[in-house]
Each structure stands twice: as structure tokens, then as C-alpha cells.
Design a protein that fits this description.
By secondary structure, the chain is α+β, with helices and mostly antiparallel strands. The protein has seven helices and eleven strands. Strand 9 and strand 10 form a beta hairpin. Helix 2 packs across helix 3 and helix 3 packs across helix 4. The protein starts with a strand and ends with a helix.
């Protein structure tokens, strides 16, 4: 979830839950309670982790940088909860789908760094904060053909929306870039290890869950991977029980 500091409310835009449900999943919201035992307990009963976007920026101290003048608001509860959930998902080899801020959290969790403000730190940057309407396709991305995202799209490029001023700078451990904006900004990352599904996109597929083909396909693939994970977990538990 997110946190609204003025009112001390946890919240999350409806589109994430609607997209998960439409793809066949049962959405469960995780409040921002950054305690390892809480996160471990919640995730023990989950089959996949969706890391959504946020209206905050990751604290640059978490990747060894000083704050840029155009750094946005930092929400420590959001940062810490994301990082705890990512650590648990890594230990469990749980399917992971990261969106926008979620990609940035994923990258930082694995030792990567971020561009704190694209417009002022990236040469010849295109506009990455499109405003409304939020579901409009703002620019195209080039896709790595044999990547998971490339295979899902079935194309070498795709149109996407764009709502971010930060982005991946140096990639973290066990991550490869698989999509790029026209200005070279990384727009998707994946984990190349064959024993897990980890995909992150910098755009917002949840906004297109009702009709955008790539958005629908991304969520369907994530839910399919979660279903496979659940089946494997059930078999392993049954085997362990039989052994006892």
C-alpha cells in the first residue's frame, strides 16, 4: 500500500486490485508495517508479490547518494516495507511483478542505484511525467526480443504510458534490463535466474487493465506464475506431511 502522511491513512489506487482480480487472482493489501515478523507472516500465505507505484521517492541514503535538489517526498515506512517484502520474496523465490516505484525498490534492494531526477540528470531526456489522461500511451519502448516482456508483447516495441521522474541508473544483482525508452532510460528489468519469475516495468500497466493488450497480458502472466507457485507449494507441503 501507500501512506498519506497528512491524514495517516494507508491506501492504494483501485486499479491494482482490479487488474489482479480480472486476471484471476485474489488481491491482498499489505499495510506499511515495517516489521520483519509481520511481513514474514503475511507473505507466508501469498503466492505472488505485486509492488505498486508510489507518489514518493526512495531515500537516496539507501543506495549511498546524497539528496538531489529535485528529490520528491520520502516515505520511510514505504521504503522499509517494500525492502522487507522483497527480501522475503527473494528467500521464497516467489513470483514478483514490480511497477514504477516498485522497480526502483527492487533495484535498490539488490544494490543498484537510481537517477533521482531524469529531466536534470539524463541528457536529451524525453518527457516521462505525462500527466492526465493517465492511461494514454505517451511514448514507445524498445523490448529485448527474447526477454519475458518481449515474449509477452510479441513485438520489438510497444506503446506505454509514463508517470515517473526517477529511474534505474546502475542495475542491481541478478537483474538485466529488457526495455528502454527512446532516450535510453531503462523501462523494464528481469531476473535471469530460471527458478523464479521476477519482472518489473517502469510504466503503469494497471491503468490499462481493461483493454490495453500488453497490460492485460502482463497481469495474466503474473497470475499464471503465482498459480504455478501455489501448486508447487501445495505439493511440497503434501510431500513433507506424508514423510512425517
Amino acid at each position: 500500500m501507500r501512506i498519506e502522511l497528512d491524514t495517516n491513512r494507508f491506501y492504494l489506487a483501485r486499479y491494482y486490485s482490479e487488474a489482479v482480480e480480472a486476471a484471476g487472482g485474489l488481491p491482498v493489501h499489505i499495510p506499511l508495517i515495517p516489521r520483519p515478523d509481520f511481513i514474514k507472516g503475511v507473505m507466508a500465505d501469498l503466492d505472488g508479490l505485486l509492488l505498486p507505484g508510489s507518489d514518493s521517492d526512495m531515500d537516496p541514503q539507501r543506495y549511498g547518494r546524497e539528496p538531489h535538489p529535485k528529490l520528491g517526498t520520502v516515505h520511510p515506512e514505504k521504503d522499509q516495507t517494500d525492502l522487507l517484502a522483497l527480501a522475503e520474496a527473494e528467500d521464497l523465490a516467489m513470483p514478483l511483478f514490480a511497477i514504477c516505484f516498485g522497480v526502483q525498490s527492487l533495484n535498490v534492494s539488490r544494490g543498484g542505484t537510481l537517477i533521482q531526477d531524469i529531466a536534470s540528470q539524463h541528457e536529451n531526456a524525453i518527457k516521462h511525467e505525462q500527466g492526465v489522461p493517465r492511461d494514454r500511451h505517451s511514448h514507445r519502448v524498445r523490448l529485448l526480443e527474447d526477454s519475458v516482456v518481449g515474449q509477452i508483447a510479441g513485438s520489438e516495441s510497444a506503446p506505454v504510458n509514463s508517470h515517473h521522474h526517477q529511474a534505474v541508473e546502475t542495475l542491481g544483482r541478478e537483474l538485466v534490463a529488457t526495455a528502454w525508452a527512446p532516450d535510453g532510460i531503462v523501462e523494464a528489468v528481469e531476473d535471469p535466474r530460471g527458478d523464479r519469475f521476477v519482472v518489473g516495468v517502469q510504466w503503469h500497466p494497471e491503468l490499462g487493465w481493461e483493454g490495453d493488450e500488453l497490460s492485460v497480458a502482463l497481469f495474466k502472466r503474473f497470475i499464471a506464475e503465482a498459480r504455478l507457485y501455489a501448486e508447487t507449494k501445495t505439493r511440497e507441503r503434501a510431500t513433507a506431511s506424508a514423510g512425517n
